[in-house]
Amino acid sequence: MKNIALVLIVLVFASCNCNEKPAEQVNMIAEKEQINNLLENWHLNAAKANFESYFDAMSSESVFVGTDAAEVWNIQQFKDFSKPYFDKGNAWSFSAVERNIYLDSEGKIAWFDELLDTWMGVCRGSGVLKKKDSVWKIEHYVLSLTVPNENIQDVIQVNKEKDSLFLIHLKK
């Protein structure tokens, strides 16, 4: 009787393992290279005013957060804002001088931060990408100005009036 019970237990565990697929190994280096290339081309397409190519790098659910507190745009709002700049042939030119890319263990979600050389000086970009059907797309991007710590009080003073009016409007 003990032998029959042991055989049944072994069969149950064996049948469970037969249906499991081995976990796919994610080549993190290759994925990060794809993401880096996507971001480099994304910035390059803005500099060259390639509207379609620029926005093809973003998902249909993408959100762009700009440097102004009021700039939180879905993809269509960002396209509407950007189109006149692209139509003039001179959108914006941001060049990454440093970039860090991170991936989840399944290689489906990535997040990054980058320091950018821009017409505004050094800016920071950060964002989230998602891989769908073997293609990475930007889901969320945040562009922010960098402020040296020793200059923060000056920036606070410059922004004080507009920040207070903006906060009053938001708290209504």
Could you explain the architecture of this structure?
With 172 residues, the chain is an alpha+beta fold. It is 44% helix and 31% strand. The chain has five helices and six strands. A six-stranded mixed beta sheet has the order 2-1-6-5-4-3. A hairpin with a 2-residue loop joins β5 and β6 (135-145). The radius of gyration is 24 Å and the shape is globular. The termini are far apart.
Which terms summarize this structure?
alpha+beta; 6-stranded mixed β-sheet
N- and C-termini, Cα separation: 75 Å
The description of the largest β-sheet is:
6 strands, mixed
User: Stretches where pLDDT falls below 50 for ≥5 residues?
Assistant: none
**CATH class bucket:** Alpha Beta
- Strand content range: 25-35%
Q: Overall 3D geometry?
A: globular
User: Number of DSSP helices?
Assistant: 5
Kindly report the average pLDDT value. Answer: 89
State the order of secondary-structure elements, H for helix, E for strand.
HHHEEHEEEEH
Q: Quickly count the domains.
A: 1
CATH topology: Nuclear Transport Factor 2, Chain: A
Strand order of the largest sheet: 2-1-6-5-4-3
- Please give the share of residues in helix: 40-55%
Q: Measured on Cα atoms, how large is the radius of gyration?
A: 24 Å
Structural class: alpha+beta
CATH architecture descriptor text = Roll
How many strands? 6
